[in-house]
Design a protein that fits this description.
Blueprint lengths: L4 E5 L4 E7 L5 E8 H9 L5 E5 L4 H10 L3 E5 L1 H4 L9 H12 L12 H32 L9 H14 L6 H34 L1 H6 L7 H11 L8 H7 L4 E3 L8 E4 L5 H17 L6 H13 L1 H22 L7
Parallel strand pairs: 1-4, 4-5
Antiparallel strand pairs: 1-2, 2-3, 6-7
Helix pairs in contact: 5-7, 5-9, 6-7, 7-9, 9-11, 10-13, 11-13, 12-13
């Protein structure tokens, strides 16, 4: 039995293996428990293993590569068309193996343990930021029910709610003020936690020479630079800058047929957090271009006059993604046009 291609349907406790020889004949179908998976895979001759991108995929990638195998990670939406008949673990594993052998299949870039650590920092911080935004919205809504309104800014919320608690608004009952004080304390605690994550991301940024080079691009700061390294590493999985920009979802969504080409808004594929950071950075570049007189600012102003602010912001983000790819591939410094 020679297994050349092995599809593994990952799970928490029970894993399904589907192996085929070079001719495509099924030679292995087995269910394996978690504590036996690495032993079973290590016993096989070196082969190409395919797994779906999911929680734990990068951990298993490192384990299987340590056992001498080549590992390919496939996005779930690319596996789904190859599932035959009913959905179950056996059919899923077979579909993963089938997708692996497609000549034009696109694979998910692998991640080292360091990249996953940086990504965990960003995910932890974003979760706290989302929680803080929800908490502020909740407090604003509760106060609006009592006739007190203020702007949506989190900075304004800290100031206004703090003043209400210090001065004591007569229209607020004692019970409501006590409840509001608890929510306000939770807001301050979230601020403190987010600040800790910001400091840790800054430490990662200062320790990484590549991040510091990327941060010289207008619209790219420490958070964007570290997020890029966490998501794509050195960019070796991408063929060119446009490929990277498309992976980030910064290209138009297409629905064309025959001679009729139809383009819509951006596809929003890939890493949403990274795309959001690039868009926010591009928005700042567009906003400040009116006060600058360089080649990039002139290009931005001309584009904005012709296509509007929203498309200009996406164009700047797309361009920054391509510049990032070139710098990662060539190891060069950022050069102002």
């Amino acid at each position: 039995m020679t297994v050349a291609f092995l599809g593994i349907d990952l799970a928490k406790n029970v894993f399904q293996l589907h192996g085929e020889d070079p001719d495509g004949t099924v030679v292995l179908q087995r269910r394996v428990r978690r504590d036996r998976l690495l032993t079973e895979v290590s016993a096989l001759a070196p082969c190409i293993i395919a797994i779906e991108a999911c929680a734990g995929a990068f951990y298993w990638q490192r384990q299987f590569e340590g056992a001498g195998h080549q590992v390919r990670i496939i996005a779930p939406q690319y596996v789904k068309p190859f599932v035959k008949r009913q959905k179950n673990d056996r059919n899923d594993a077979a579909a993963i193996c089938r997708a692996l052998k497609q000549p034009d299949m696109k694979f998910v870039p692998g991640k080292s343990l360091e990249q996953q650590d940086i990504q965990a920092l960003h995910r932890g911080r974003q979760g706290l930021v989302n929680h803080r935004t929800a908490l502020v919205s909740q407090m604003r809504g509760l106060l609006l029910d009592r006739g007190i309104a203020f702007a949506q800014s989190i900075r304004r919320a800290r100031r206004e709610i703090g003043a209400l608690l210090d001065e004591g608004a007569p229209e607020l009952s004692e019970l409501f003020r006590s409840m509001l004080a608890q929510l306000y304390a939770a807001l301050l605690a979230l601020d403190h936690q987010i600040t800790w994550f910001d400091r840790e991301i800054e430490k990662v940024f200062q320790a990484n020479e590549t991040c510091q080079r990327l941060a010289k691009i207008r619209g790219v700061g420490p958070k964007t630079a570290t997020a890029v390294i966490a998501a794509v590493g050195d960019g070796a999985e991408f063929s060119n800058g446009r490929h990277l920009a498309a992976w980030m979802g910064l290209v138009p969504r297409q629905h064309s047929s025959g001679n009729r080409n139809r383009l819509f808004g951006i596809s929003k594929r890939g890493d949403r957090h990274l795309r959001t950071l690039l868009i926010h950075g591009a928005r700042a570049v567009v906003r400040t271009s009116a006060r600058r007189d360089d080649a990039q600012s002139n290009w931005i102003r001309d584009l904005q006059a012709r296509r509007g602010a929203a498309k200009t912001i996406v164009a700047v983000a797309n361009k920054n993604a391509r510049v990032i790819f070139a710098m990662l591939q060539k190891g060069t410094e950022f050069r102002v046009a």
